[in-house]
TrEMBL record:
Function (record text): Component of the acetyl coenzyme A carboxylase (ACC) complex. Biotin carboxylase (BC) catalyzes the carboxylation of biotin on its carrier protein (BCCP) and then the CO(2) group is transferred by the transcarboxylase to acetyl-CoA to form malonyl-CoA.
Organism of this sequence: Fodinibius roseus
Biochemical pathway: Lipid metabolism; malonyl-CoA biosynthesis; malonyl-CoA from acetyl-CoA: step 1/1
Gene3D superfamilies the record matches: 2-enoyl-CoA Hydratase, Chain A, domain 1
Any single biological process term in GO: malonyl-CoA biosynthetic process
Name assigned to this protein: Acetyl-coenzyme A carboxylase carboxyl transferase subunit beta
EC number: 2.1.3.15
Keyword Lipid biosynthesis carried by entry: yes
């Protein structure tokens, strides 16, 4: 059988090899393409450039909790549309769309389990659900997480990724800033450790409340962290912003963060910090 033919000094084949969709991933930082399996095996971090792809609660829980095993709490709290809000579409329809698209009922999940044999409560936001926006359900689930940590004297970790408050819930979403902050004050009074982990992006009301209130505030490399976005700030002050403004490295240099921790070191670093806070650290 003749599989090959010569044409214009190039060898060609009549049999085309189809490349399965999604096998190769483009790295936004470098423009290079890497094999999906290589990125997955490295916790969705590009091995060459260190670029951290955004991941959600499902993946964070899978490597932070021992064997990926945890008990979820707060999932019975689901969003409604108390204001009958409508812009380009009804808020109720938007909720249904994102619930179907993501498989989550809202933008945060809370798990209870062990991390390197330490009991922990972890709340993790999902940016894919309406930009990780903080509405009433996000605030209530995080309040439940804080209460559970306080009542059971279990350390709390919150992983933030958010565009800010959820505009479709108006003042109801803004109230969550005060509620979560007040709950964290109660947690501090009980002496229960809280570590805040900021990922790309952490902005708006989330930054202005629980994300910056940790006993330790840490972030992944090159995460965008701030209240308003760079474009809004630039338009407001009418000046160019410093290089790397609002990125993790800039915030660390100016005292807003305690550490920057790559994702593949996150579990070990969190464990070390908690052992220090719990007075269980061994030399």
């Amino acid at each position: 059988m003749d599989w090959f033919k010569r044409k214009d000094k190039n060898i060609q084949t009549d049999q085309r090899k189809e490349m399965p969709e999604g096998v190769w991933i483009k790295v936004p930082k470098t423009g290079e393409t890497v094999h999906r399996r290589e990125v997955e095996d490295n916790l969705w971090v590009d091995p060459l450039s260190g670029y951290h792809f955004r991941i959600g609660s499902e993946k964070y829980f899978s490597f932070l909790f021992d064997d990926g095993v945890f008990e979820e709490i707060g999932q019975e709290i689901v969003p409604t549309d108390p204001l009958n809000f409508e812009d380009r579409k009804k808020y109720s329809d938007r909720l249904e769309e994102y619930q179907e698209k993501t498989g989550h009922s809202d933008a945060v999940r809370v798990g209870v389990g062990t991390m390197n044999e330490l009991d922990v409560v972890i709340g993790c936001m999902d940016f894919d659900f309406i930009g990780g926006s903080m509405g009433s359900v996000v605030g209530e689930r995080l309040a439940m997480a804080i209460d559970h940590a306080r009542e059971h004297k279990i350390p709390l970790i919150i992983i933030s990724q958010s565009g800010g408050a959820r505009m479709m819930e108006s003042v109801l979403s803004l109230m969550q800033m005060a509620k979560t902050s007040a709950k964290l004050a109660q947690l501090e009074e009980e002496g229960v450790p809280y570590i805040s982990v900021m990922t790309n992006p952490t902005t708006g009301g989330v930054t202005a409340s629980f994300a910056m209130l940790g006993d330790f505030n840490i972030a992944e490399p090159e995460a965008l962290i701030g209240f308003a976005g760079p474009r809004v700030i630039r338009q407001t002050i009418g000046r160019d912003l410093p290089e790397g403004f609002q990125r993790s490295e800039y915030l660390l240099e100016h005292g807003f963060l305690d550490f920057i921790t790559p994702r593949n070191q996150m579990k070990g670093e969190l464990t070390k910090l908690l052992k220090i806070l719990l007075h269980k650290f061994e030399e």
